[in-house]
Specification:
The complex is a heterodimer.
Chain A lengths: L1 H18 L10 H13 L16 H15 L4 H12 L14 H33 L3 H19 L1
Helix pairs in contact in A: 2-3, 3-4
Chain B lengths: L1 H22 L21 E3 L6 E2 L9 E6 L4 H15 L5 E6 L3 H11 L5 E5 L3 H5 L7 E5 L5 E6 L4 H17 L2
The chains are: A mainly alpha, B alpha/beta.
Amino acid sequence: MTRIVLATLLALFAGLSQAEVADVYDFDSREQELRYQNLISELRCPKCQNQNIADSNAPISEDMRNEVYRMMQAGASNEEIVDALVARFGEFVRYKPELDSRTFLLWATPAIAVLGGLLVVAGVVIRARRSERQAQGLSPEERARAERILAGQNKTSDR
Amino acid sequence: MKRFLLFLPLLVAVVLGVVLFAGIGKDPTKLESALIGKTVPEFTLADLHNPGATLDRSLFRGEVSLLNVWGTWCPSCRDEHDDLMWLAEEKGVPIFGLNYKDKREDALVWLDRLGDPYRATIYDPKGTLGFDLGVYGAPETFVIDADGVVRYRHVGVINPKVWEETLLPVIREARGNS
């Protein structure tokens, strides 16, 4: 049993180690390395459009990873690094686009969809309540009139 | 109000149709350069033909020109080479070359064998200028105006059709207002 578990684990980790393009970079700390990994997973490769530069083997991704590393070692902030790459390759390389007038709709669509849905639900509920109230509510005069009509019908049907 | 609601699905379908139709036929692998409207990035790189001499961005001043990014490792660059020769010789277009991530000897053999359409060729073996220009795949061609400002970037090969329909209008405009 333990052997099977071990084998499965090994197989899993073998996959993991192949998933990332191996670069040999030295980092001062574990945090720096994590920061680097986060950055390269948020940047998109301009050549192989649906991959981030962490996964991509394209030479351009390698250049971009080198630049991210170089700027990190030079003490640049995450924002500065991403901006430097956007200045060269365009907004396209951001997997998380900035919130501005062009991307407003992109970011706002989920909120708009939820709000719209809530409005529709509220509309349906209010309408249902209103018709319910109308169904149960007969005024005393209406009730008397309805009874009169029903009584009259009974008489006619008796005949 | 009720009537209007009945037409809502139709309206949504039409709007969606228009949006999606606008995307048909566009090549998603061709990105607009982030450098349009900006001056060519600063660089100091060797001249391909003359290892002792350096070139910088003052190269592009004075006249609307093309900057063609190429390498001997790039098959499409071979494809467009004859058309670059045609542009340089028949149309008199000033073309500068950026030899990108290549070996000097290979590049010189290539130009010797196929002809040299370039006024000057910048030798960029590490691809530093290419990186600053946002080059993500050769061949790429930039239209640069007389003030050294990038006006347009074409990704892919140049042929007479691309020249007539895409580059010439941009060049005419750049010549017109600078």
